[in-house]
Amino acid sequence: MTSQHFIPETPEQISPEWLNSVLAGSDLLGNNRVLAVSRRVLGDGEGFVGDILRLTLTLDDADGSERTLVAKLPKLANRAVGELLGAYERESMFFETLLPTLPVQTPRLYHGDFDRDRGSENQEPILRQMDRLPRFLSGIAVRLGRRIAAGKKRRYILLMEDVSDAAPGDQVAGANRERCRKILEDIAALHAAFWESDRLFNHFWLLPSDIDVNMRHGMMRDSRAAFEKLFGDTARRLTARLDRLETHGVATVRQLCRAPATLLHNDLRLDNLMFRGDTTIFIDWQLVRRGPAAFDVAYFLTSALDDGGSADDLLAHYHAALCRRGVSGYSLESLRTDYALALDMVLMGLATVDQMNMGDGRGKLLLETWMQRLANRLDVDGTRA
Fold first, then answer.
1. Are β-strands 156-161 and 273-276 bridged in parallel, bridged antiparallel, or unpaired?
2. Which of 96, 223, 292, 385 could bridge to 340 as Cys pair (CB 3.0-4.6 Å)?
């Protein structure tokens, strides 16, 4: 399948002519045309697999007025990883397919496009077969997949509403419990809306959380030495937990994924949230999957909550929000058990960060802070797993 329009691969290719071709007649431009565009890359650590740009468009109306929007392109340094994860395609399809049905706020989409790929559109059965391979073959398959992904050079772009009037979340700074409660209320609305819903299925891009668990487990084991070198004292705090995951990691994820499935943001952290008054705006849907709600909860709390107290009160608050929105048959005790399992699943994922280019600035600091918070959560809340 081929795209109707040219798809820019670099910021410089986002020209006034191209913008006019894809935004003609849109609410953003109306009857106007773009005369000029300026581009500003948003800061270090803002996107790990994608570059995020703010575009300022000068229009041809009498006042020479301006419009702003946000563009997302693959980050060339991590493009192979993003391709392997299906991150770029997944976010495009999410906006195209599910955006109108969301009960939470997210930026409006003006234009999305990407190079189609038949192999990618059969990714679920392909991944299921790959995940059944013996570990030594699975490692070979992952390395081969990386080479194939790196060689594809597919192009992707999203043009979205600029929500810079909203206050950005700051994962390095973290969040207090009051803020965490509000965010958990909002994500509960999303989870409840898709709780064991038929809308989770028949989307080639919306994969189950455990579809690649064996490959991810193998990646964790292969990355262990690099992880311990990268995180030093924090990694040593996690030694016993990592030892356990080396043996029982796959079983842990399988057990967690027996919980009711829902739509997961799957990268729910403060850097992917904006705040306009009491409204939470959810951004960056590149890793969206279907799976157990407790994973989003654990992922968020490990990245945001900086105190050493138990998360029991926050879990109870989230569970009450689920129940108010019609979820039944899922007890608070089940949530607590699933949350403890999900903490281990978060650790399995983050233990492979050596395979991602995080840079030496804010991205590195973010990961160091996240690891410390994760270790704290496991110490306090991880005993049920």
1. unpaired
2. 385
Tokens of 35: 């005369």
Q: Is the pLDDT of residue 338 over 60?
A: yes
Long-range contacts of residues 140-146, Cβ cutoff 8 Å, at least 24 apart: 141/215, 142/215, 142/218, 142/219, 145/84, 146/80, 146/81, 146/84
Residues 94-113 pLDDT 10s? 998 998 899 999 999 999 99
Are residues 241 and 152 part of one domain? no
Distance CA 148, CA 153 (A): 9
Cα 270 to Cα 280: distance, rounded to the nearest angstrom: 10
135: in domain: yes
pLDDT band at 385 (very low <50, low <70, confident <90, very high): low
Q: For residues 174 and 135, state if they share a domain.
A: no
Q: Are residues 71 and 45 in the same domain?
A: yes
Task: Please provide the distance, in angstroms rounded to a whole number, between the alpha carbons at the two ends of the chain.
Answer: 45
Count up the domains in the chain and report the number: 2
- Flag whether pLDDT at 361 surpasses 80: no
Same domain, 191 and 65: no
In which residue are the tokens 């340094």 written?
77
Residue 339 lies in a domain: yes
Report the percent of the chain where pLDDT is more than 90. Answer: 66
Shared domain check, 98 and 223: no
**Which domain does 281 fall in, by range?**
170-384
CB 160 within 8 A of CB 70: yes
pLDDT reported for residue 1: 40
Distance CA 194, CA 264 (A): 9
Strand partners, 289: 264
State the chain's mean pLDDT as an integer. 89
- pLDDT at residue 379, as a whole number: 94
| Whole-number pLDDT of residue 88 | 82
Q: What is the mean pLDDT of residues 206-220?
A: 92
DSSP 8-state class, residue 205 = T
What is the domain-level CATH number for residue 220? 3.90.1200.10
Sequence-separated contacts (24+) of 139-142 with Cβ below 8 Å: 139/218, 139/222, 141/215, 142/215, 142/218, 142/219
Asked if residue 246 belongs to a domain, the reply is yes
Q: Say if CB 169 and CB 274 are below 8 A apart.
A: yes
